[in-house]
UniProtKB/TrEMBL annotation, chain A:
InterPro entries on file: Ald_Oxase/Xan_DH_a/b, Ald_Oxase/Xan_DH_a/b_sf, AldOxase/xan_DH_MoCoBD1, AldOxase/xan_DH_MoCoBD2, AldOxase/xan_DH_Mopterin-bd_sf, N-heterocyclic_Hydroxylase, OxRdtase_Mopterin-bd_su_IorB, TAT_signal
Protein name: Molybdopterin cofactor-binding domain-containing protein
Xref: PANTHER family: ALDEHYDE DEHYDROGENASE, BLR6219 PROTEIN
Tagged with keyword Transmembrane: yes
Ranges for domain Aldehyde oxidase/xanthine dehydrogenase a/b hammerhead: 210-305
SMART domains linked to this entry: Ald_Xan_dh_C
Keywords (A to Z) from UniProt: Membrane, Transmembrane, Transmembrane helix
Pfam families found in the cross-reference section: MoCoBD_1, MoCoBD_2
Transmembrane segment boundaries: 12-32
From TrEMBL, chain B:
Listed PANTHER family: BLR6218 PROTEIN, OXIDOREDUCTASE WITH IRON-SULFUR SUBUNIT
Entries under InterPro entries matching the protein: 2Fe-2S-bd, 2Fe-2S-bd_dom_sf, 2Fe-2S_ferredoxin-like_sf, 2Fe-2S_ferredoxin-type, 2Fe2S_fd_BS, Beta-grasp_dom_sf, Diverse_Oxidoreductases
Domain of life: Bacteria
Name of this chain's protein: (2Fe-2S)-binding protein
SUPFAM superfamilies the UniProt entry points to: 2Fe-2S ferredoxin-like (SSF54292), CO dehydrogenase ISP C-domain like (SSF47741)
Organism in which the protein naturally occurs: Christiangramia antarctica
PROSITE patterns: 2FE2S_FER_1, 2FE2S_FER_2
Keywords: 2Fe-2S, Iron, Iron-sulfur, Metal-binding, Oxidoreductase
Gene3D superfamilies found in the cross-reference section: 3.10.20.30, [2Fe-2S]-binding domain
Keyword Iron recorded: yes
Domain 2Fe-2S ferredoxin-type span(s) in chain numbering: 2-78
Lineage: Bacteria, Pseudomonadati, Bacteroidota, Flavobacteriia, Flavobacteriales
Pfam families for this protein: Fer2, Fer2_2
């Protein structure tokens, strides 16, 4: 039991009600008109009563719960309302879920990113449900003239045991809506949970499998025209001029013009990442017609004048001086290998690592790297915008609506309160939709043409305009003494344009003599967060190195990690270690048990890895066999400690997906450049993992505890790259240091 | 521009469009059947999969001029009430994450089961390899196809 202060005052309630008749209804009339099944229409209640911004109760007892955060496939549209329903104490079958409007006065942190939705909504969503339940009880106590303490609830009913009376929430909802919200409420003890911790199906499942319009690309309005943009072919170039004469004559084409997403003096916030601001735009009557015109449009490009640190470095490189700073992957690689460590800065130092290396009997040194990756959400970037009369309505897929509202307002000079962003389901995010330049672009286009517009990126546009996962590089060194003790540890890591290092994470804290250094190299190529930023490289590198180190020391790789963690727990080095060693060890022990690691009776080649990020702990064992001289991934065991698991089957699905995603990117994917031009423009050359290459089975085990929930969308993704490399070594005898591990012709399975 | 009469989900549709227009955009822009998804435009991702007759095809590479009197079935027409064994199996296994590719996955899977109600793992992989799922739901898709195979009326 926990008592918390409520944050739903009278003021925010009134504000919500006002919104409910405005923005909310407009947004959902579209969804409702398209999506209602026969059964839903028949069971429609006559009247809804808004209890607070989070929920409405109908006269027939149905409950509508608003899901505040953007849905990118992490299933928050189901799991967040489950938290509200738990404390409200309703039958989940009576719950309808709606995507909430953007309203940060009511809903905290309406953002999909950093694996934080459940963690940060844990109290506020339960508070919303508990508050509503309190108001229902208060209204009933007044109506029945009994003390509120004599009332209890059970799955949508209020019960007065003394007089053997009961009443459905729907019967008292209209009175409850008039009750003042309580100042504090009691939250349930986790042992009393009825909904949290039980598996509930995806609330949009039926709509997804029947092809109902759910996604941004599906959104249409009357009079809407289609728009596409043309961006420079190479990073480091910009638009010079457009010759639209031929294209304007093409059927279905309305207009061709130039927009500037973010002018040079625009003060960008962190969500305003983009590579190309000046774009050529084509508008027309249908997607296909605009696509055809896009191929024919004549555009001249010129080198960008913007001088970066990268160019200064590149100018020293003879074979690049003639290209004016157009970057190639080949050069990036040699820069990372040669220049990186010269510019490294110390981030953390424990003990005397220099002395340890000077006195070492043996030094083990290995380097790891990974390429740029495109996010490649299956739904390409797109957005609907209707800008008129100093107002902007924007509808579509974006992970950061509350930030993009500000960017659109600032760029178009429209007051913030006149910018309305509505969230649709997203065909994937992975971090790409944190950066919403496409909202600004759609809004500028709509403003220019004076009509509702749908901006659509082709796959090629989506893949070649940047916002990539950075390219990273790391060198690990270990000092071993004559008795095979690990006496020193040194990591130097960096990347283009950011470092992947998390210097205070394991194995920091477990090593007496530890040195961590980092460096960066600037670039024209724009980058952004990609599922588990930085961890998505450094986990695999570190876990591969620890595997090789265990082998050098003649130790079992799990036992070796547990020894280090024991040291970190019992006698930690340094003060800023940002992990709990016992929970780290806990997932390793669980995966060791579940995978039958010690007995090893599967006959498979196995690799292990463990990592901590986004407040959660994950350990994985990957089992591989060789068939016809090709490695086949038979099974992955995955142990997770993310505190209380809200929706176990959906959580398992998310972890399975993260593992497939990690295996795929580590094995196959890369975005490479030649003189600023991406080599991969579509899925014919950009390899993503396919059905036959995925692990045959994935078992997920959750540590059971009563700790408040932590992240899950990202943590299962990074360590699998290490487990995979370590299993590949066992299966093939070859260590893999550089992603992607497979050459373009190799296949798995 | 040219006039076409096509059969989509059992209904006759008449359109006056550019003959090169792929069925993907006919469905999405002209017929308002947006369940069929755009993913790559070059038949590499499978998000746009529909049935031409009883065969799974990529509608992004299928110009309207090539249809003639062959019947097109989209995700919206796979079953009247959304209760095709494949759709039910998808719900039972709670397959989707983001959900964007799933209409294409379902259309490929239902075409497979029509020909082979009891496919092996290898047969599933071969039939489904053209459908990318960026969220990585492959393991569940395979399980759902097997469940649907068991629940399908014998062909």
């Amino acid at each position: 039991m926990k008592i918390i202060k409520t944050k739903i005052g009278r003021r925010s309630f009134i504000k919500t009600s006002a919104l409910a008749s405005g923005g909310l209804v407009v947004g959902f009339s579209w969804l409702a008109s398209c999506n209602m099944s026969k059964e839903e229409v028949e069971n429609l209640p006559k009247e809804w009563f808004e209890i607070n911004g989070f929920l409405k109760i109908a006269d027939n007892g149905m409950v509508t719960i608003m899901s505040p955060n953007p849905e990118i496939g992490q299933n928050v549209k189901t799991s967040m309302p489950m938290l509200v329903a738990e404390e409200l104490d309703v039958d989940w079958n009576d719950v309808i879920v709606e995507q909430a409007p953007l309203n940060i006065d009511i809903f905290t942190r309406q953002l999909a990113g950093g694996s934080q939705s459940i963690r940060q909504g844990w109290e506020s969503l339960r508070m919303a449900g508990a508050t509503a339940r309190c108001m229902l009880l208060e209204a009933t106590a007044q109506e029945w003239e009994v003390p509120i303490g004599e009332l209890s609830t059970n799955e949508g009913k209020i019960i007065h045991a003394g007089s053997n009376r009961s009443m459905g929430y729907g019967e008292i909802a209209s009175a409850a809506a008039k009750i003042e919200a309580p100042e504090e409420v009691v939250l349930k003890d986790p042992k009393d949970f009825k909904i949290i911790g039980t598996s509930r199906k995806n609330v949009d499942g039926k709509k997804i499998v029947t092809g109902k319009p759910l996604f941004g690309l599906d959104y249409k309005e009357k009079g809407m025209i289609y728009a596409m943009m043309v961006h420079p072919p190479a990073f480091g170039m910009k638009l010079k001029s457009i010759d639209a004469s031929e294209v304007k004559e093409m059927p279905g084409i309305r207009d061709v013009f130039e927009i500037e997403t973010y002018p040079e003096d625009f003060e960008k916030s962190w969500v305003d990442v983009n590579a190309f601001s000046k774009l050529a735009v084509i508008t027309g009557d249908s997607t296909w017609e605009v696509m055809q015109a896009k191929k024919k449009l004549k555009v001249e490009w010129e080198l960008s004048k913007h001088i970066t640190e990268q160019q200064i470095i590149l100018d020293k490189t003879p074979d690049l001086s003639s290209t004016g700073g157009l970057e190639s992957t080949k050069i990036h690689k040699s820069l990372m290998e040669q220049i990186g460590s010269d510019r490294a800065k110390v981030v953390r130092k424990d003990g005397d690592p220099e002395k340890a290396f000077k006195n070492a009997a043996r030094i083990v040194e290995r380097s790891y790297s990974c390429p740029f990756l495109a996010h490649n959400t299956m739904e390409p970037m797109n957005f609907f915008a209707n800008v008129s009369d100093n107002k902007a309505l924007l509808v579509g897929p974006v992970q950061t609506p509350e930030y993009m509202e500000q960017s659109v307002s600032k760029r178009l000079g429209i007051p913030l309160e006149n910018v309305d962003i509505q969230m649709t389901r997203m065909g994937g995010g992975f971090g790409r939709r944190l950066y919403g330049h496409f909202l600004v672009e759609a809004a500028l286009i709509s403003q220019k043409v004076g009509a509702p517009v749908k901006l659509v990126y082709t796959r090629e546009d989506d893949m070649t305009q940047g916002t990539y996962r950075p390219a990273y590089y790391a060198t690990y060194k270990a000092a071993l003494d004559a008795n095979n003790n690990l006496t020193g540890f040194h990591v130097i890591a960096g990347g283009i344009p950011e470092s992947p290092l998390a210097a205070n994470r394991f194995p920091a804290g477990a090593l007496e003599n530890y040195l961590a250094e980092e460096w960066t190299i600037d670039s024209h190529v724009s980058v952004g967060a990609f599922r588990a930023p930085r961890s998505n490289f450094i986990a695999g590198a570190e876990q591969s190195f620890l595997d090789e180190l265990a082998e050098e020391l003649g130790k079992d790789p799990i036992e070796f990690r547990l020894e280090l963690l024991k040291k970190a727990q019992e006698n930690p080095v340094g003060e800023n270690n940002d992990y709990e060693a016992d929970r780290y060890a806990g997932v390793l022990e669980l995966v060791r048990e579940k995978s039958n690691w010690v007995k090893n009776d599967s006959g498979a080649h196995r690799g292990v890895a463990a990592y901590f990020c986004h407040n959660s702990y994950v350990a994985q064992v990957l089992e591989m066999t060789m068939k016809n001289n090709q490695p086949v991934i038979e099974k992955v065991h995955c142990a997770i400690d993310c505190g209380i698991v809200v929706n176990p089957d959906a959580a398992t699905n998310l972890a399975q997906g993260g593992i497939v995603d990690g295996v795929g990117h580590a094995l196959y994917s890369e975005l490479t450049l030649k003189e600023g031009v991406p080599d991969q423009t579509n899925f014919d050359k950009y390899r993503l993992i396919r059905h036959g290459e995925a692990p045959k089975s994935i078992e997920v085990y959750f540590v059971e505890n009563k700790i408040d929930p932590t992240g899950l969308g990202e943590p299962p993704f990074p360590p699998i790259m290490g487990a995979l490399a370590n299993a590949l070594y066992k299966a093939t005898g070859e260590r893999h240091y550089h992603q992607p591990y497979m050459t373009s012709k190799q296949i798995l399975g | 521009m040219a006039n076409f009469k096509i059969n989509v989900n059992g209904e006759q549709k008449e359109l006056d469009v550019d003959p090169t227009t792929p069925m993907l955009w006919i469905l999405r822009d002209h017929l308002n059947l947006v369940g069929t998804k755009y993913g790559c435009g070059i038949a590499q991702c499978g998000a746009c999969t529909v049935h031409l007759g009883s065969t799974a095809v990529r509608s992004c590479q299928l110009p309207i001029s090539s249809i003639g009197d062959q019947k097109i079935t989209t995700i919206e027409g796979l079953s009247e009430e959304g209760d095709h064994p494949i759709q039910q199996a998808w719900l039972e296994h709670d397959v989707p994450q983001c959900g964007y590719c799933q209409a294409g996955q379902i259309m490929s899977a239902s075409a497979l089961l029509k020909k082979n109600p009891n496919p092996s793992d290898d047969q599933i992989d071969r039939a489904m390899n053209g459908n990318i799922c960026r969220c990585g739901t492959y393991v569940r898709i395979k399980e759902a196809i097997k469940t649907a195979g068991k629940n399908s009326p014998v062909a």
